[in-house]
Amino acid sequence: MRVFAVPFAGAGASVFNAWSSAFPETVELHAVQLPGRESRYAEAALGDVDEAVRRVADAMEPCLDRCYAVFGYSMGALLAFEIVRELRRRRAPLPVQLFVAARRAPQLPAPRPLLARLSRDAFLKRVTEYYDSPAVLQNRDLLEIILPVLRADVALCEGYVYRREPPFDFPMQAFAGQRDASAPLSAVQGWREQTTAGFSIEVFEGGHFFFNASPTRVQQAIISRLEHYLRGATSS
Questions:
Q1: Which of 17, 18, 64, 135 places its Cα 20 to 30 Å from the Cα of 211?
Q2: 229, pLDDT greater than 90
Q3: pTM of the prediction?
Q4: 74 annotated active-site
């Protein structure tokens, strides 16, 4: 089977570089590379959720010839959710599981002022406070590279408008950080409304980027779910 992984704001596909070796041979990882970063640095970052969703769905659709799952982290969770809804509207094959991490449920409004249009210093201060941002923001050289795409990604999220559609009929698993101010546990639990199948939530120590502190645990949680599905598919 395949796993499509969508990164958090400001990040590229390389955040999942170590994941392929952690997954069993039966699972093939595909990391989404959005415009404006890493190998697509020369392209303009996208500022609209709908456009980003259409582009990723276009790229994914030819690869849906086997069962698959989708994982998204923070902004990636929002995009992953909408990508799957777009694939459903196209009547494309749907995933066996959707994994969402460090993101409040899409139907819940963000309880904070908008950040994307703040001045440079105010933007960085608020992002660091609210998202417990990683050390990359303390590196001046890297900061100048990622700041434009980070601001574009934040604007993309802030421009998102939730549209009510039927919940999914496949399982979902959510991951939350105990001290994540941007996605507290109560807000992550709201994803339960987006599926009529099984829903579970796993809580990690740390703030918004528990992904960096506990990568093996996140990977093992995903692998466990996928292996459970594969065993069931094989036995049936």
A1: 64
A2: no
A3: 0.93
A4: yes
